[in-house]
Design goal:
379 residues; alpha/beta; seven-stranded mixed β-sheet; 16 strands; globular
Length: 379
């Protein structure tokens, strides 16, 4: 075979190989993206849509905050995309985040109240012999895709299959860092507890196979009994959405009340006068779980700054403050450790009791660990 013929054969073979490689790449992308449509969740239809339409928070086809609140990011004096790519902030820890495996739970009593923080907003509440799991996210990314989206900065301290049996699972809203399809499906198989969610979020759970008898949807100020616990959805100032459509489901904070102990969880929220109202109606609280991370002056109405979290804790008539919504996912432009540095300084300035556990560490509310600045050695 002459050289021109050999080159022609080689070119043809190369085209076939490139075509095969392209098909393989497309097949690989399709395989990885196969769960994305489901992860986007469901839409409100039928009785669920009719109930949402009756909510005081629902008008013109979407849910709304009480005051007029800007929920889209924007700052006229800044290029946020450029700052995200080229900013000089230290948005990741310099060393591994120290993890703890929760020690055996202390004996349950009628006065028991403990918090196990797993990272970001995921936490386990042990209250008067019962357990409530809050905003569990165990996936590697908070995203509908396994390929793109914010990735964990530390592993979960324990596996989902290592969690104790829980009595309720609370979801604050449908953003990916608070509601994760893979985690929900694992909890569906491994737990028997009901999912308590704000109005509309049940549509996502329904699409993911959660049976109706395990879905409890609540509007603000509505309560549900779980054994001796009263769990109440309360107001928050935020927004929702998993795809292109926004605010099709409600967002909320939560009150978990037993016979003797009370806990408040903010979910995601800007600072607003609703905290004082919640404190007056449902407080005082033995402990508050306060969102402190992912803030920026470009979106001040939907995430609190650390100083605002302390003010909200005082409005709520809180006892011990445990900061959450930091350390695990990189969701804003501030330094990784800035939220907790700022809240520690503000708590000291305002004489607020503070506990900053390592992920996986149990906080006994009546005997919390001293704040030791552990994050500063890895920042």
């Amino acid at each position: 075979m002459g050289e021109p013929a050999e080159r022609a054969v080689a070119r043809a073979l190369g085209r076939r190989l490139r075509g095969a490689a392209g098909l393989a790449a497309l097949a690989g992308l399709a395989w990885v993206a196969r769960d994305v449509p489901a992860a986007l969740g469901g839409r409100l239809t039928g009785a669920r849509a009719a109930r949402a339409a009756r909510s005081p928070q629902f008008r013109d086809g979407t849910f709304h905050n009480r005051p007029s609140t800007r929920t889209m990011p924007g700052a006229s004096d800044r290029n946020l995309v450029r700052e995200l790519i080229f900013g000089k902030q230290k948005r990741r820890p310099a060393a591994a985040v120290p993890l703890r495996r929760p020690a055996a739970a202390p004996a349950a009593t009628e006065r028991e109240l403990n918090v196990v923080w797993y990272g970001h907003a995921s936490a386990l509440i042990e209250i008067e012999g019962h357990r409530v799991l809050i905003d569990p996210v165990w996936s590697d990314r908070c995203s509908p895709s396994a390929l793109v989206g914010p990735r964990r900065l530390h592993e979960p301290p324990v596996g989902l299959d290592e969690l104790p049996a829980v009595d309720a699972i609370l979801i604050s809203h449908d953003h990916y860092d608070h509601l994760d399809m893979a985690t929900v499906r694992a909890l569906l198989a491994g737990q028997s507890a009901p999912f308590l969610v704000p109005l509309g979020v049940g549509a996502h759970l329904d699409r993911w196979g959660v049976p109706e008898d395990r879905i409890v949807e609540l509007d603000w100020s509505e309560s549900h009994r779980v054994g001796p616990l009263t769990i109440t959805a309360t107001a928050a100032q935020h927004f929702s959405g998993r795809g292109l459509r926004r605010d099709g489901t409600l967002w909320s904070s939560w009150v978990v009340a037993g016979a003797h102990r009370r806990l408040f969880y903010t979910g995601d929220s800007g600072y607003f006068d609703g905290y004082a109202e919640i404190g007056a109606e449902h407080g005082p609280f033995d402990v508050t779980l306060m969102q402190i991370g992912a803030y920026d002056r470009a979106w001040p109405g939907i995430h609190m700054f650390p100083e605002e979290a302390v003010a909200a804790h005082l409005d709520l008539r809180g006892g011990l403050l445990v900061p959450v919504h930091w350390a695990t996912f990189n969701l804003a432009l501030h330094d990784w450790s800035e939220p907790v540095d700022r809240i520690w300084a503000e708590a000291k300035a305002r004489d607020v009791r503070l506990a900053v556990p390592r992920p996986g560490e149990r906080v006994v509310v009546d005997d919390p660990p001293a704040v030791d600045g552990w994050w500063q050695s890895v920042a």
